[in-house]
Amino acid sequence: MDGQPTLFSRIIAGEIPADIIYRDDDCIAFRDIQAQAPVHLLIVPVEPIPSIANIEPSHEQMLGHLFVVAARLGEEFGVARSGYRLIINHGDDAGQTVPHLHLHLIGGRPLGALVGVAPPAPH
Ligand code: AMP
Questions:
Q1: CB of 6 closer than 6 A to ligand 1?
Q2: 6-41 pLDDT, tens per residue?
């Protein structure tokens, strides 16, 4: 990290507006600005962990908490019964654009086998 706050840290700090739907001491959830489905939420730890590749054993409890919050939001947003997908992108090939770990919660329409699979590109 270069010491600059991430986009999501700036949302957490209230410096950038977002449609925040949940927050507690460890995480925040808000609507994705470019929703891919009727329900597209981002669940973001307050700690600016750049990506899943930077996870350490000390993060175990917090990561579990993100999933507890995801399950609760799935219920709250009415997609628990119809189904939803949780996605974590890591790195360029997965299309990660914000270097601050986050869970996408996507639902509210049939999602097919996978969301956002682009044609193979040469490396
Ligand atoms: P990823 O590509 O996995 O890094 O996901 C980053 C997500 O953040 C994308 O789906 C973007 O649409 C979303 N995003 C970027 N800027 C904002 C913002 N200001 N408010 C809400 N979502 C955002």
A1: no
A2: 999 999 999 999 999 999 999 999 999 999 999 999
